[in-house]
Amino acid sequence: METESGMVDEALAILAILSGHPEGKTAIGAASAIPVLVGVIRNGSPRNKENAAAVMVHLCSGEQQQQHLAEAQEQGIVSLLEELAESGTDRGKRKAVQLLERMNRFLKQQSQAEAEAEAMAQAHAQAQAQAQAQAQAQPQILVQAQAHADMQAERSLLPTSSDISDR
């Protein structure tokens, strides 16, 4: 069992090194490693947690940052990182804090995007309601305009006071 644990330690240390290089980061990200890394942070030894967090720091930067952060959030990483930031190794604590800062920025951006989408949806709904109200009011306005025109026409047919006095 000790040998297996040592191999996991070594494998994670190698992944941490590889994730620091663009090609390595791409390959690790393409391998759908986020759930495995979150699992290691959840259940691994202190050194495993430290190295898994180091890999996550690299994966959660650059082009795929938002995708990886979203996936990590879905896996429940925030509480695990908070725990690691409190009770991990010194390096593990630093990596956990870095990830928590990135996650915090990501969640704020996500919240702002949701608020903007909600505001746009409300504005769209208001515009639709106004257009519908105008469409419903349009026939009423036409009826009123027609009634007014009919009344004007009737008045023009009625004799005026000057017409009556001329007779």
TrEMBL record:
Segments of skewed composition (Low complexity): 110-147
Location of the region described as Disordered in the Swiss-Prot/TrEMBL record: 110-167
Record keywords, A-Z: Ubl conjugation pathway
Pfam families (alphabetical): Arm (PF00514)
**Origin superkingdom:** Eukaryota
Show the SUPFAM superfamilies listed in the entry: ARM repeat
Compositional bias ranges of the Polar residues kind? 158-167
Q: Do you know which InterPro entries this protein is assigned to?
A: ARM-like (IPR011989), ARM-type_fold (IPR016024), Armadillo (IPR000225)
The name this protein carries in UniProt is Uncharacterized protein
